[in-house]
Amino acid sequence: MKAKSLTAVALLSAILVGTGCASKGAYESAAMTSTELVDTRSQILAARSAVDMAAVTFDDLVTNAKPDLKPQYAAFSKAVDDLNSRALSTADQAQDFRSKRDKYIKDWKADADTLTDAELKKRALERMAETQQSFDTMAVKVQDARDASQPFITTVNELRRYLGGDLTSAGIKSVTDQVPRVNAQRDELKKRLDTVVSEIDRVNSELKPAAPAQ
Hints:
Layout: E1 5-6, H1 7-15, H2 26-63, H3 70-85, E2 87-88, H4 91-113, H5 118-164, H6 169-174, H7 179-207
Antiparallel strand pairs: 1-2
């Protein structure tokens, strides 16, 4: 199975475009996007837990092997299945993201261009540029997490296949050296997912329709 990117991260790419058109009113689009970001934050945390479980069950299977290896292997296999269920191909979504993001900014600019007050128009375009920069910054963090997800998912899937064909004491012993590798990939991926969550929190605080801080 070809390594794929985490579903929650892929879904976030679609959300980053700022769903809804500018004609609905900026505050309505912002509120809707804010709600979706909260939901995606929960999905990313769930994906983070799935990453942890895949690494933990592999570690248990290899470093705490029981006389009957089947239950531990089954737990590891189930954890990998759960991880894979949160993964999908993102090529189409990435293209869709770019198209929708461009349309979102284009529609916002079109609305700003209808303003006749030069100062308000200038401020609207400045705010549009700030929001676009926030989305672009988040998109970079999402891509970083996506890049880190691929080697980890590939590794645990390969290890499952390897042990599925040699579920013996000797087979377990032969992959003992893979535990540090799996843990290192897990830690790097979790770190990047945590960064995405932090970015979501930052952008979400900017999008919420609320009075400015005094």
